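Input record, target 12 of the design panel.
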C-alpha cells in the first residue's frame, strides 16, 4: 500500500508472528516507518531490532517515545487489553493482533477510550483485505450470485499438535473459535454484513491432551487444554440470511476450509480465510439438468495474494492520514468478538441468543490496492 506520508510505528511483541509483520511493514507498505520494537524481555527486542535494522527497547521506552504515532501489538490475546490501554493513554493509535481482547467488556472499554481520545483502534484478522476476499466481495456487490440465500462454513484442526506447540492456545481466548473462528466470522461480516443471532453448541472434547508436536520439548506429555475445541452453530445475519458455522479442533492437522455462499444465480466456494489469496470457484445457475454443473475458477483482480500481514496497520495508517474510517476497524473487531462470546452463551442456555452489537460492512478495497 503506497502513500506519500508515513506514520512512525512501533511494534510490541517479538515472537514468531512478528517476522512477517516486520518484513511486510518495512519492505512492502511505505506509509509505515517502523522505528522500534519492544518485548517483555528486552533482550528479545534487541535481537529482533538488530535483525530488522530498528531500535529494540522496553515496552515502557516505546510507549514513552513521543515520536511514535502508531503501536502494533503482536503479543498473546490475554495481554492485549492492558497494552492497548496503555498505548491509547499515551496518545498513540493502536492496531492489535486478533482478538482485540479476550472478552467483549474489555474490548468495549478500549473502543470507548479510543473514541474519547480521538484515536484509531484496529484489529486483525486483516485477511479479508486480501485478493481472494476482495474479489469475492466484488462478485457479490455486482450481483453475480443474485440474491444471497445462505452460507456454509466449516473447518478442522488438530489441537493435540497445535496447542502442544503453541502454548498461547491454552490461554484464555486461545480456543478454536476465539483464535481461529474469528477469521471465518470476520470475512463473513465483511462480505455479507453483521450477525443478528446465533444458536450454538460448544464443547471441549478433551481437557487433558497428549502433546503431538515432535518439535516440542514436551512431546508425548500430557497438558491441560481448558478451551473450546468444537463449535457448531446456526448463524442468522441482520439481512435475514442464515447459515451453518462449524469448527472441529479434534481432527487432522491440515486445515480444510469449506466456505460456500449460495445465491439465486450461483454458488461461490471460497478459499481458507486464514489466507489472503487462494482459489475461489463459482458455479452459475442453470436450468439444463442434462449437463453436469460447471465450476469455474475465479481470477483474482485485487492485489495481496501472498501472506500480507501488516496490510491492516498500513490500511489504517492511510485512513488516519486521509481522515476516513479504517476497514479492519474497532467496531467490526468488537462485533466479531461479541458474536463468538454469544455462541458460548448460547451453548450454555441451549437456545438462540441475540448479538447485542452491530457494525457496518467495511468499504470494499479499490482494485489498485492503494486505498
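The sequence produced for target 12 reads:
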Amino acid at each position: 500500500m503506497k502513500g506519500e506520508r508515513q506514520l512512525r510505528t512501533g511494534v510490541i511483541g517479538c515472537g514468531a508472528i512478528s517476522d512477517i509483520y516486520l518484513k511486510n511493514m518495512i519492505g512492502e507498505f511505505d506509509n509505515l516507518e517502523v522505528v522500534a520494537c519492544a518485548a517483555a524481555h528486552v533482550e528479545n527486542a534487541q535481537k529482533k531490532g538488530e535483525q530488522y535494522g530498528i531500535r529494540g527497547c522496553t515496552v515502557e521506552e516505546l510507549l514513552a517515545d513521543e515520536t511514535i504515532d502508531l503501536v502494533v501489538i503482536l503479543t498473546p490475546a490475554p495481554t492485549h487489553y492492558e497494552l492497548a490501554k496503555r498505548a491509547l493513554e499515551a496518545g498513540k493509535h493502536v492496531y492489535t493482533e486478533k482478538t482485540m481482547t479476550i472478552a467483549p467488556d474489555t474490548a468495549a472499554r478500549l473502543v470507548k477510550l479510543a473514541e474519547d481520545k480521538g484515536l484509531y483502534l484496529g484489529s486483525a484478522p486483516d485477511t479479508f483485505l486480501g485478493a481472494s476476499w476482495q474479489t469475492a466481495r466484488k462478485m457479490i456487490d455486482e450481483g453475480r450470485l443474485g440474491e444471497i440465500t445462505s452460507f456454509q462454513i466449516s473447518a478442522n484442526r488438530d489441537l493435540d499438535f497445535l496447542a502442544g506447540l503453541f502454548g498461547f492456545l491454552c490461554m484464555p481466548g486461545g480456543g478454536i473459535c476465539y483464535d481461529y473462528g474469528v477469521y471465518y466470522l470476520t470475512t463473513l461480516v465483511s462480505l455479507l454484513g453483521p450477525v443478528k443471532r446465533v444458536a450454538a453448541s460448544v464443547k471441549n472434547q478433551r481437557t487433558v491432551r497428549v502433546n503431538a508436536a515432535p518439535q516440542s520439548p514436551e512431546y508425548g506429555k500430557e497438558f491441560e487444554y481448558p478451551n473450546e475445541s468444537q463449535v457448531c452453530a446456526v448463524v442468522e445475519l441482520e439481512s435475514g440470511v442464515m447459515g451453518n458455522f462449524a469448527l472441529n479442533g479434534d481432527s487432522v492437522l491440515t486445515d480444510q476450509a469449506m466456505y460456500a455462499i449460495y445465491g439465486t444465480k450461483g454458488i461461490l466456494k471460497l478459499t481458507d480465510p486464514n489466507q489472503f489469496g487462494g482459489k475461489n470457484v463459482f458455479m452459475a445457475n442453470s436450468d439444463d439438468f442434462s449437463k453436469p454443473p460447471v465450476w469455474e475458477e475465479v481470477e483474482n483482480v485485487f492485489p495481496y495474494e501472498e501472506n500480507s500481514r501488516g496490510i491492516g496497520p498500513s490500511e489504517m495508517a492511510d485512513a488516519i492520514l486521509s481522515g476516513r474510517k479504517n476497514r479492519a476497524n474497532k467496531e467490526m473487531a468488537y462485533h466479531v468478538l461479541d458474536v463468538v462470546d454469544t455462541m458460548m452463551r448460547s451453548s450454555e442456555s441451549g437456545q438462540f441468543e441475540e448479538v447485542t452489537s452491530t457494525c457496518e460492512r467495511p468499504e470494499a478495497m479499490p482494485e489498485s490496492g492503494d486505498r
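Residues 75 and 319 are 24 Å apart (CA to CA).
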